[in-house]
Amino acid sequence: MITAEQRQQYQQDGYFIVRNLVEPSALAEIKAAILDFIDNPGDLEQVLDPELAVRQGKGEHLSHRAKFRKLQRLGRYRPTVWNNYYAHPNVLSVIRSLLGDDLLVKYDSVFLKPAKTGGATPWHQDIGLWRDNHVEAANAWIAIDPASKENGCMQFLPGSHHDGFIDHVLYDDSLHGELPRDLVANLEGRVNIELQPGDGVFWHSYMWHYSPPNSSDQGRIGMGAVWASLEQAQTSQRVKEYFWVMKDRQRLIHPPKKLIVDDGKHVPPPPFPPGY
Ligand SMILES: O=C(O)CCC(=O)C(=O)O
Fold first, then answer.
1. What is the CA(248)–ligand 1 centre distance, in A?
2. What would the CATH number be for the domain defined by 4-260?
3. Does pTM surpass 0.90?
4. Which of 33, 47, 116, 237 counts the highest number of beta carbons within 10 A?
5. Cis amide bond preceding 255, omega within 30
6. pLDDT tens readout for residues 177-215
7. Rounded distance between C-alpha atoms, residue 227 and residue 253, angstroms
8. pLDDT at position 261, please?
9. Whose Cα sits closest to atom 9 in ligand 1?
């Protein structure tokens, strides 16, 4: 459950933080699974789609632990990651407060920002990338390592979710679609979302957020997620595959059961327009 203060902050500022959401023993299992993948990607790339393990640059000069920027969908293939985060009882309790009792995972990813080499994530709204109708989806990120200003924690612009959807653009050097740079240059009022391992942050799909490069000597691993209600999944405009974590008020653990909602009408969004 979320508190009245957290709900109020979600409405007013567009996000809230839940401290100690995931306990240390569960976090240790998650981190072990992530490091095991990074240390032994050869074997596991047979299970994970290799295109979903997003590498940073060519990587030859990087230590093997610095090669990955994202590990998308790792959770779906790792029971300890799935059960200790995406289907963790404390996490589901928060998500139920936002979306009700039938819950599915739409997106799961590890976000890695290795010491000294981890790059920035540009300013964006999640819905600006999805370009779907899930305005009230539950978007979250939990810290596996401490996330600080020094090692590139996320920054939010409180209240920016009140401004609605903004078309995202792609510059020649964009990592992915982003908010137009003239809108985010010298933004005043941004806040650093500093988290300790096990803390989680939840935000609105319109929230403007960003994370800077990591110039410190401390790596920063976190895990992102998006959950959807059954109704959102069934009326999805973009994603065809969802994974059950709660049905009829029962928590569902790994292996996650798939819900396919492909009615043949899903069309991929058009390419992002160029930014100037
Ligand atoms: O991990 C990060 O620094 C960025 C994460 C993010 O932007 C997201 O989950 O939407």
1. 31
2. 2.60.120.620
3. yes
4. 33
5. yes
6. 999 999 999 999 999 999 999 999 999 999 999 999 999
7. 15
8. 93
9. 224
